[in-house]
Amino acid sequence: MSATAASSVFDDALRNLDRAFDYADIHAEAIERLKHPKLAIEVSIPVRMDSGELRLFTGYRVRHDDTRGPGKGGIRFHPGVTLDEVKALAFWMTCKCAVMNLPYGGAKGGVIVNPKELSHMELERLSRGFIQRIADFIGPDTDVPAPDVYTNSMIMGWMTDEYSKIRRQFTPAVITGKPIPLGGSEGREDATGRGAYYCLKEMESERDWTPGGITVAIQGFGNAGQAVARLLAADGYRIVAVSDSSGGIYRASGLNIPALIHAKEAGSHLAAIAADPTIGGDAIDNASLLALDADILIPAALENVLTADNAAQVRARHVVEVANGPVTSDADAILRQRGIQVLPDILANAGGVTVSYFEWVQNKSGWYWSRDQVHQRLQERMAAEYRSISTLAARHDIDLRTAAYAQALGRIGRALTAQGTREYFIGGKG
Ligand code: GLU
Question: Which of 20, 81, 112, 164 has its CA 20 to 30 A from that of 88?
Answer without folding.
Answer: 164
